[in-house]
Amino acid sequence: MFPSPSILDKDAFKYSVLKIINNGFNTDNQLIHHASTALHTMESVTMPVAQHTIDVLQLLQAMLEGAHFTGSQRYTAAMIIIAHQQGKASLERLAHDWFYFFLWPIKKAFRLSNRTLSEMPTPSADSAESFFSSNSDLASDFGTNNHKKRFIQMLSERDGHRCAVSRSLDFRFHGGDNPGPNNRVLLDAAHILPRSILEDSSKYSLPVTLDIIKSYAQLPSELINKLPDEIDAPTNGMMLDHPLHTLFSYSEWCLHAIGEHKYAVHWFGNSWYQVMEGTEVFFQDLSQDGISLPEPKFIALHAAVSHVLHSSGTAKVLDSIYDVYSDDEYSSVLSSEQSCFEETTLKLSLMQLASDSHQLPTSS
């Protein structure tokens, strides 16, 4: 069983949101101010998640702030404004949907992405396949070993066999001249948008998640439709040393755009790596073979989600639940007395996480 959207699937709500978005009389700043004012008048309310609680106001405010990174302020503000007009319960339902269909699936996928590509199982058909099967552009070898090897090879060549942030050299590289620091480390081919985001045991919830991603990241429809192609494409990756990859997957740091394909490192958590705060990262094709650079919208989405997770306190809640479930201590997190629909769904989802049978969608 999987939760159903409580407001984002309502046609009347979506129509009202679109009217505000398409209303040229209100500037983005006016809508942001209107939404912020609406939230400031809202009484404090919490949303139970297993043995934890999430502050609904903080989550909605964090979503509004995070929209700055992706340019989706108008969409996010309109959502909050219409929900506020419909009353407190609608604001709670909006927070519910953004949590269960956006933040949780992406956070889960980020945690899963901490496994190296060699540890990721080769996917077979699953229930999510039906969602993508109607798209003729899907790559026939999505998720196969050839796809993974090509992803690693192209990223390594494009990034000069070096970590995009620390510039450390991959210890496996034994080529010719390679200007830069001589220190050698283990490098990973890191996904920006985790490939397991396409992993969902419900063909009904995956489209909702992708629709939120499309709107919040301002992704064009053709990019969403080709997401299985893009997941293992150079546009969705960068070479990182292993610890940095792990912390990137935990959303402990992100990249803030400061120019064309130029970024500054920003840290959220406590780590000695924080000495890299502000480090500039400039992506270029060092292979000179025309390998595509990282998609700025993917980098912006990671930055936005990282901000929301930390600013709202959601990161600590989800990490805490994940860590307990990944140790098979299911009963200690969701007691039999806590039988609300969302908690049961979260339990089932985390039980899937703890197993080794994760499957990614593939084309038919």
For this entry, give a set of tags.
single chain, 364 residues, mainly alpha, three-stranded antiparallel beta sheet, two-stranded antiparallel sheet, 14 helices, 9 strands, 10% strand
Structure description:
There is one protein chain. With 364 residues, the protein is mainly alpha-helical. The chain is 47% helix and 10% strand. The chain contains 14 helices and 9 strands. The strands form 4 sheets. It has a 3-stranded antiparallel beta sheet with strand order 7-8-9. β1 and β2 (52-55) form a beta hairpin. It is elongated.
How are the secondary structure elements laid out?
Layout: H1 11-21, H2 28-40, E1 46-49, E2 52-55, H3 56-70, H4 73-86, H5 88-112, H6 129-132, H7 145-158, E3 169-170, E4 184-185, E5 187-191, H8 205-216, H9 221-225, H10 227-231, E6 237-241, H11 242-249, E7 253-259, E8 262-267, E9 280-282, H12 296-312, H13 314-326, H14 341-354
Parallel strand pairs: 3-4
Antiparallel strand pairs: 1-2, 5-6, 7-8, 8-9
The tally of helices reads 14
Poorly predicted ranges: 116-143, 327-345, 351-364
Radius of gyration: 21 Å
Name the structural class.
mainly alpha
Give the beta-strand count: 9
Q: Which strand order spans the largest sheet, edge to edge or round the barrel? A: 7-8-9
The major β-sheet equals: 3 strands, antiparallel
Percent of residues in helices comes to 40-55%
How would you sum up the global shape?
Answer: elongated
State which percent range the strand residues make up: 5-15%
N→C terminal distance = 25 Å
Mean pLDDT: 80
Q: What's the helix-strand series?
A: HHEEHHHHHEEEHHHEHEEEHHH
